[in-house]
Amino acid sequence: MPHSKRTATGVLGGLMGLIGLSTVAGLLVTATITPAIAVSGYAASSAIEMFDKMPSYLKIEKLMLPTTIYAKNDEGKNVRLTEFYDQNRIPVTFDKVAPVMYDAILSSEDKNFYTHGGIDLIGTLGALARNASSGSNRGGSSITQQYVKNVLQQTCEAKAVSAEEVRACYEETTANKGTEGYQRKIQEMRYAIQIEKEYSKDEILIGYLNIAHFGGSVYGIGAAARHYFDTTPDKLTIAQAAVIAGLVQEPNTLRIDKPGGTLTAKDGSPLNGKADGYKLAKERQDYVLDRLFQDKKITQAEHDKAIKAPIEPKITSRPQGCSVAKGSEFFCAYVTSIIRGDAAFGKTLNDRIAALRRGGLKIYTTLDTSLQKAANKAISVVPASVSYMDLGASGVQVEVGTGRVLSMVQNRPWSDQADDKKTTQLNYNVPVKNGGGGHSAGSTYKVFSLINWMQQGHSVNEVLNGRVGKKTVQTCDGNTQTVYTGEGIGPDGAQRIGNFEGNRGYTGTVARFTKDSLNSGFLTMAEKIPVCTTNRVAQDLGVTLGDGGALDELNRPYDVLGSQAVAPIDMANAYATIASNGTLCAAKAIDRVVDADGQDRPIPETKCERKLSEDVAATAAYVLQSVMTGSGTGSGARTFDGVPIFGKTGIHQFIHTWMIGSSSKVTTAVWVGNVKGDERLENHYANGSRLSRIRNQIWPAMQRAANAEFGGAAFPEPSKELTKRSYARLPSVIGLDIDAATKRIEDAGFTVIVGSPVPSPEAEGTVVEQTPGAGRVVSGTTVTLSPSDGKGVVVPGVSGTPQQAADALRAAGFTNLTQSCTAADDAPAEGVVTGTDPAAGQTVARDSAIAIQFQAKDCGEGGGGGGDNEDGGPGNGNAPGNGNGPGNGNGNGP
Q: Structure pTM?
């Protein structure tokens, strides 16, 4: 064990060393009484030289105190979540300790405390003599010397980072063996003199009682009174004070909180336990009571009563750690991970752990206990464990515009032990650095493609061909990769990327792709905006891989569909950025830190930075609102409370499911999935709901609670520029067969509807009509194509008399002929043809009725011809002439 400046005298052993050092002890005592002394002899001068080289000033560091973590309740009051400590200590002031406690400690440890100058010479010499003769490490020091020893020990322990180092601190500050023991005693004496000069007796006494060890992790009189007797130091009885005073000699042996005993006898039976009435502690208590009586601090009656009474502990534990924060354990773990990792709590990890366990800090967190309670109720619909998979579920809420974490829950309860099937310490909401991991984000990741699309100057109403098929995706830096969408295996031998429920896709707007969460549509977008740029948008909004890695390392086409594993809290903050009109606020769990002196300390730095333009944020919110309405994929998670919300769903191979959404005040992210393995959610149920859709129960319950407390306003109007309609040139496809025409129209970005066949002399299936016609039209317009039925006939042009026209029409294949006469004075009696209906040049079916239009001087009573008679002439009209029509009718006309 290291010691500095050791002299020849310092290494003297046995009785000769004792004589020399005892002389020094005598000198020290004399120095506290008279200003001048005379010393003679080599031993004394050597001892004085060694003494002079010892450190002469002991700085009393702050006590090692528990750190307390708080949250606000419904009334806005700070309530304790939990504590962390290495030493269970409750500091008290001098006036808060019962006088009998002072009497007990002084009578049993240092009855001359108020009269000596800091050193109990007789006791110290006796201890040194015992050290020389038997190696005993029993004390004999004054209260001041014991105080010095405890200060030295705590100063050492405050820097310890392991149980081994703590034990080493104990050995270094308490061992009496050999030269080190002599030197330690002398050093204590020197420090004791300094302490007595700097502090009053009362300050030293209460300092000692606040620092002293009373067994296990109990330190200080405040914690000892509470732990052993469930009381406060000012209410201790004579018997209780005697027990506590007795503990300082051998704290772990004499403690009375071990019913099974603190030692084991040679025959294997327990010692100092409930069975033997805490025998060793009782013996020490009786000793203290005897000393109190001898010093006339208590009466005979008080003495006898306490002697006869058994020790009756009333043990009151002071649990610590995140398991104490019932219902908020994972938030507690998140907070402690921040403390361990942030430089605001110390330069090194050991410094930060010391701050948590020994710093006496008050940590005021962002947790909203009302929302936490509602979130715990909401997440409870997911069982803590099931037999068929490692089922997990989590929910986290952050305040828009601040990043303050308001709630954090999950289905599987916290455990202080190793993970098992029913409990865990893995925090599903946070990344690895905070005790969690990550989950494939599914379609909630598509929001980054949407933002990227707008940031690169595109409108959300731009129309793309989102039908399934081959997609040549830009990965990064000009590189591309071909993927196939749809069902089954693609030409490359890989599984095609399908749409939800086998949707074949369509030509539509990016806004509609988002509403429908169309995979083939987003891969089409990736043909224009590289995958790496979308991943970088996510990174710019604070999202990383769950293990802290960069999202843009691989840049696979599947990334835009949410294949990479990310933490829900990061995704929640990204969505909150949209809700806050483009400002990203890093997650914040700690509002305030107060040190043991009541002074505010710096808190972990969390910045709010503009990451999106107001136009992009407003338009993203506008598009995401449509997801929650009508046929949108998020409509099943509506809150129905009147507060405007937006959101996005996500499914990754039915192994992970998500729902993330926000009001203008609070963002909620919910994940349900298989923590490990490939078992899918879709075929399993819990609480009457399919697991793949149970997010739709959790998310609205959590968001409604937030809406009820925080409210929410309408989101800003979208940008006109980012929602403008785009135009494209529609090609003509007249004359193409229906398949070729459809491909050409769809390749141009339009949707095709094939109408019913129309009469046409063109080959069957040939496009003979398209609506609208070729030219500049709104992108994505639906085009109706009309194919030929292959049965149409073109109406020929006719002239001459009605009979001549009829002959020509019959020759063209028309048999259903009628006449329509118009009287004209200058027309010939036999009539003159003026046209047909349908007109010449039109294509009609062969059985279509063709009306021969003609003029005649006298149209007769019929005003026109009838249909053809069986002989082929125009039928039974009466004009011209008085017969039944020209030709071979039955009359006498021309």
A: 0.80
